What we know:
This is Amino acid ABC transporter substrate-binding protein, PAAT family. The chain is of the alpha/beta class. It contains 10 helices and 12 strands. Strands 1, 5, 6, 7, 8, 9, 10, 11 and 12 form a 9-stranded mixed β-sheet that branches. The radius of gyration is 22 Å and the shape is globular.
Amino acid sequence: MKTKKNFLAGLAIAAFATVTGAAAMAQDVLKIGSYPANPPWEFKNEAGEFEGFEVDIINEIASRLGMTTEINGLDFRALFVATASRRVDAVISSLTITNERLEAQSFTQPYFSGALGVGTKTDAGISDLSGLEGKRVGSIATSFPENWLKEREGELGYKSYSSYDTTANMLTDLRSGRIDAAVNDIVSLRYAFAQPTMQELQVSVEIPTGDKFAIMMPKGSERLEAFNDAISAMKEDGTMATLYEKWLGVAPEEGSLAVTPLPVPTSAD
């Protein structure tokens, strides 16, 4: 009888160890949401695996925290729902810190200061923002470029605006002439237009905005400070600069966001 009790106790302990071990393993994996067609920030390669500047950043953060990542592709608008519902631990997608977003989400310190670009056909004859008057323009739904355009509708005087779920659809419409101009992150546009199938497109206007890219997380995430500390360490030991040059083709400027450790932001300023 005693032997049977010991056997059952042993089974219980083994079962508990298995459950707790599985829970510990689950906690070692960071669930990451990402827009899957946003090179060079993040994109899927031919093998269906995520690559890109921010993919390398999030994987390096995970490594420094003794964790791994599980990256899932989501539509751009779904990224915000995923963090708000805490279905993911973090989101990467060249996301701009804004005061509106900070009301419902948390952000790490920024690591890139962006600019917008106006993409057009090479023969469009658009060389500055005044050229958008009377034109059909487009951008990605709920993105910083979309908000930028809508806030300046009266000033720019464009004829119509089209909102897109994917960059691919937006650029397809640009190539086919359904829109005259696409406004997006300038790095993404230049990367896309360097591809052989996009030779008839160009960045016609650069718009300095000073928007700051960072990793978005659920509001008040318990991992926020750890993420931020890891990014500071990456900036201090040169890892961030190495990744920056790998994906963007140039070394970051001295004193730029890519090399300057910062606290967790409480505003977009």
